[in-house]
What does this fold into?
Amino acid sequence: MAVAAGISLSSCQKSDSEISTTSGSNSLGVQLQAVNNTYSFGVGTRALTTGTLKWDTCQMYVSRVHLTAVKEQGDTLSTEMEVELKFKGSKLADLFNANSLLGNVTLPAGLYDKISIQIQSDKKDAGTSPVFYLAGKYTNTTGTIIPIAVIVNKDLKFKTSAKDSVQLNSAADYTALFQLDLSNAISNGKITEADLDKAKLTNGKIIISKDSNTELYDKFFEKVLNLDAFKHKEFKKDNEENDNNKD
It folds into this structure.
């Protein structure tokens, strides 16, 4: 899928540079990843049998990624960078793919901090597909396995910030990894086994959407797909990672 993007450097003057979607020196990639795809309801209880929830599919259409950062230039001078990745139509991100990238941004070498990103998913770009789709299986206390899916068909917007700085140089490229914790809606007790056991089935499947099992949908949306859903995990040095894979 084609990608169009632009970058502006905000200082005394504005100039244009290049956004690259392939690996190159001085590049900073953006990666989204879903974690904690398996959850057991019985942790910390005395129950002999408990329900489990295991997700196997997590996809999201991404319309654009807006990145801001400050490039340090000595003790007194810094330059604020504003970067936006725009996709033609949208980009389908597989959040369970450990090697999936939204794109790489080519930036001048230097030290960057105060890095933050905003992820925008527009329903119009997803067409007839869900903007966000999460699917898996719920196994209840009797051992019955029930397919389950969370379907979101509305505009989504996430904001998150990196907790550390990154030094870009010609020797290595970096990827900013942001993670979505799928256990948030469950581990805090907001969604229980009882909720899933009494959920309405559609053709033998638990569908959680704005039109089906709406109470579960509201709980999930509040705790997982909120404005600050994605958390910065780390900066990965891509060149080192590639070298390790060769061993």
User: Anything to note?
Assistant: DSSP finds five helices and 16 strands in the chain.
